[in-house]
Amino acid sequence: MEIVKTIISSEKLAERVDELAALISRDYAGRTVTLVCVLKGGVIFMVDLARKLKLDVELDFLEISSYRDATESGIIKFTKDLSNPITGKHALLIEDIVDSGKTLNYLSGHLQAQKPASFKVCALLNKPDRRTVNGYEPDYIGFDIPDEFVVGYGLDYAQKYRNLSYIATLG
Ligand code: 5GP
Ligand code: MG
Fold first, then answer.
1. Is residue 164 domain-resident?
2. Ligand 1 closest atom vs CA 72
3. Atom of ligand 1 nearest to the CA of 156
4. Is it the case that residue 134 has pLDDT exceeding 60?
């Protein structure tokens, strides 16, 4: 698969990251926020966002893999859990993209069970037309996008393209 077209330029990404950082800095003013990055896709978004926050920030990471059968009923497994539980912390989950909503629904349940002081979700990309799970919805969204497979700025196809500075479609 080859890159077909840029749908979000690096300038647009930077602009939106600034806007999200301003919103989050306002909402969490005076608090320390723990950014929980979902590896690997969320990592580029997380480090850009973190550097724009006017807050005290802690970073933690988790990694999951999902195995899907033909009916897309996925089993989600942790390949890396948090270094420290988020109990009592203001946790903000950083996701690359919300598609069916299964991953986010699972992760929000898992993390809220640790009894954080607060829990919210920031997703760079959202595909509202693809939702099959009526569950947790992101509190902050970078961009709503149509139902197309995208890569770049953390998102991969077979581990490739994560380092692109823009979001593009493949074909
Ligand atoms: P969900 O559980 O919401 O269906 O899936 C979320 C995960 O699927 C994302 O974290 C991401 O890993 C993957 N995903 C969904 N849509 C895309 C896409 O357009 N491009 C890439 N690279 N990954 C996607
Ligand atoms: Mg992901």
1. no
2. 4
3. 22
4. yes
